[in-house]
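In response to a reviewer's request, we include the raw inputs and outputs for one of the modeled complexes. The two entities were modeled together in a single run.
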Amino acid sequence: MRAAILAVGSELLGTERLDTNSLLLTEALLRHGVELRRKSVIGDVEQEIGAELRDVLPRLDLVLLTGGLGPTADDVTREAVAAALDRPLVADPELLAGLERRFQRLGWAMPAVNRRQAQVIAGAEVLANPRGSAPGMRVAAGAATIFMFPGVPSELAGMIADHLEPWLAARSGGVSRETAVLKVAGLPESLVEERIAPAYEEFGREAITILAKPSDVRLLATATGAPDERRARLQAMTGRLAELVGDAVYSRREEDTLESVIGDLLRAAGATLAVAESCTGGMLAERLTRVAGSSDYFAGGAVTYANRLKTALLGVPEALLAAHGAVSEPVARAMAEGVRARLGCDYGAAITGIAGPGGGSEEKPVGTVHLAIAGPAPAPGRPEVDHRQLRLPGDRGRIRWQAVQLTLDLLRRRLLAAVPATPAGTAGDDAALAGGAGAGAGAGGQPRRAP
Amino acid sequence: MRAAILAVGSELLGTERLDTNSLLLTEALLRHGVELRRKSVIGDVEQEIGAELRDVLPRLDLVLLTGGLGPTADDVTREAVAAALDRPLVADPELLAGLERRFQRLGWAMPAVNRRQAQVIAGAEVLANPRGSAPGMRVAAGAATIFMFPGVPSELAGMIADHLEPWLAARSGGVSRETAVLKVAGLPESLVEERIAPAYEEFGREAITILAKPSDVRLLATATGAPDERRARLQAMTGRLAELVGDAVYSRREEDTLESVIGDLLRAAGATLAVAESCTGGMLAERLTRVAGSSDYFAGGAVTYANRLKTALLGVPEALLAAHGAVSEPVARAMAEGVRARLGCDYGAAITGIAGPGGGSEEKPVGTVHLAIAGPAPAPGRPEVDHRQLRLPGDRGRIRWQAVQLTLDLLRRRLLAAVPATPAGTAGDDAALAGGAGAGAGAGGQPRRAP
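The model returned the following structure tokens for the whole complex.
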């Protein structure tokens, strides 16, 4: 089944409101395996609503309208649909009596304008709306079906449960669609896409969706069909995607963030962390402390925006700053080692860079960033300090965000290399679904949050 | 002129994302008196995009598309528009060279898939996108015009300014609707609403809009008509609103933020600032350093999440912590004084609190926060340290955000009290519009950003 959603209301075409009703409708559609092809927002304009219906009715099976069923002159959804279907509106005496009773209960005389809400498209099924005065309608239009719902969100939610869900269930045979997620850090969208290309071929392009922000990509795998079948398919898809993307996958749980995964790793290792930031100005510490309970492993940090503070708070030698400049590999390393030692933590993470728009030079343009992680050597012979140099695109905000994201990812990889492997998939459906995690998450697997 | 907006992206048809790009486009359209007739969201499906274009092109003048211009296989907007217009796609060698240079700068080889982004619809004008890899296009379709923009919001915003606004301005004969803003900090929406009630009566309810986030309210005053007339009306409205809201108004410029206004005040005073944070974990420093050039006045700070760091980095006496607890007035004061003295700045700001969800007690529930500002006494006989205790509602994220916002506001008021009054409205249209600023901004007026 293919569906369209149409939200009616001129206020939804301004600069301040968005149609959020469609999210409620979409949830119901997806649960029942209905494909949402499009959604539109249209003002309270009869001819525009009619044009939309004439466009979509011949090619889709289901059209869900919200809004424009009120009593006032600018509520024209009833008239527009009737005109588009070439059917008359007829007064429904039962509806009218119900409306009058409703107003009586509230102690008011029914305003004359509300009589319009008792008008029904000939042949339509009236859908009761006990939460408001605007009844809904369901009407057949050739092979397609139109639902008309009120735009008030609380009324709509009730009517989805009362009228739409049962109708969809009768046609779909129950819930039939499930989604699994892989969260990926530190790779641009196009590289992720290149890596997973074989999975598109194996499972079909429409089964896999990439949702990307800079340096933070979510892969959604979707399966339909009977419960056992779609579970097996999801497991196969996520296993294959994890294999293809490799250790850039940082979690298979929607609620995880890079900072929560790092928290899990630090807690599992019984280790503590401190950070030193220059161009990111506190954003790294802020990300880490978004996690409730982060005080278990995060001690704090220094925002050393002024160079003199790099010396005063972190012990970066003045001579090093003079020789290499604040944005340099030696200074990033000294910041990480300094914050680790001075704040007495197992790990120190440091960022120094040029976020712009000013401050760039030919040698060190805006976007030049040095990251460093100091900590116990992850294995004999491995260095204590990891360093990475970046040349980031974008504006100040984006450079800062990416610098933090890539520092978190560098730290995650370092912790994975240090933490001894934990047994994966111990119990439960969720763990079973994550069966192939070892392949995607490097030597350490995906430690799970402490209960 | 009548317009439609079309957002392309299958992720916008799920339950997790809304098309917010259309709000940016709508703003530009309204400014130039263009009527937005409809907006639609369509998946990355060529035939569906084509159907929409065939539906709207014959009856509207302007179609604005966003999204689907990326490099990956599911980005089909280019192909869909070309097919709907029955025109070929041709490779643009200059675009291709630019893309290759972009990837070189990032230190990567350009993935083969990105070559698609150099494909242009025959006869289309290429719209440069210096902020990303997807160029836009403008193409004539009979009497109508189609704009194609990337879906990344920051890239879109830049392209609206660079390409759409000038095009609209050339056709609309100039702006016909104007909005002025007052930005308000530290008051809840309902109190702002109460204060401005008289202005609703005087100017009409539809002329004034309140847009609110917790502790950050924007008041929009809108006027239409001939330039002189609407300017006069806007000036009357904003003057009256500023008078009613009082010194909670922190700016009349849309681009200002609380942190940029504080930067202006610090720069005007030639003063420096350091911060000490506990529960906000770096968010205060992060906000302050969002402002380009903040290194002129912001030295840095300490995130003292662990209590021992409050002593080690800020010199908060252990006895004080033991006697009052970390979340207390004496500790907040000691943190502000400590960071001011140890980091050698004119002002020190400090936050300590319980952001939750754990850590609360009967005496100090979640949401208890102490703020302090240390600095030179603003006037003879006034104290050096200001303190404020809060009991904030909401979850961890909201408590942290509000704590930072109210600390910034406390700092702003302190700086206003300290900075000698500067002459307001010296030159230019903008300054003239802000003529009544003195009333809204307290003794100090609104210092303008240094050029």
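As requested, we also summarize the result in words. DSSP finds 15 helices and 17 strands in chain A. The CA atoms of residues 241 and 349 of chain A lie 30 Å apart.
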